[in-house]
Amino acid sequence: MTPLLKIDSVDLTKDLAGCEGLDPNYVTRVRAQFLFVQNSALIQQIQFADAKAAALMTLIGLLALRGPIELGNEPLSVLSMVFGACSGLTVLLCMTAVFPRYPALAKRRNLAQVERWSWLGLSSGELSHDAYSNFMQTSEVSQLIHSVAMSNISVARVLQRKFQFLRLAFITTTLTLIALFVRMATVV
Fold this sequence. Notes:
Oligomer: single chain
Radius of gyration: 24 Å
Order of helices and strands: HHHHHH
Strand content: under 5%
Shape: elongated
């Protein structure tokens, strides 16, 4: 993996207007607005993923504790074991999806050199109050755009991991519901 470009290494000689002949101020506003809206959408999708995981945990918890297959009241059948294992795995996957994620300590320490948009970049310990204030007073637009873009990539990777765990949780939920329906069909 290539090392991340540091903020102070951003090429400030690039023509901000691009090739379309538009005003550089307009193009810069469009780029910044795009990144801010993208960041907001990513954060909303993370909140949506967390809400899905919480709802799925609640559903499986209710089924496991109060559902038609009451674990502990009957001898363990294969169906009861499948139901219990799938229920437990679903809850574990949902908890993993909701669990906060951030880079390892070694990466976090240098994060302020790469981006200064996320709370992780600002709280890395490598950036003092004065250094951040000075950066904001003297930063170039390209550095700010770079910072938000780098943060958006990190947020998108967190979102991808959350949805990977959610996909697995939905698969185990399907298995749980199949076991539940088979049990209900055999009881009736």
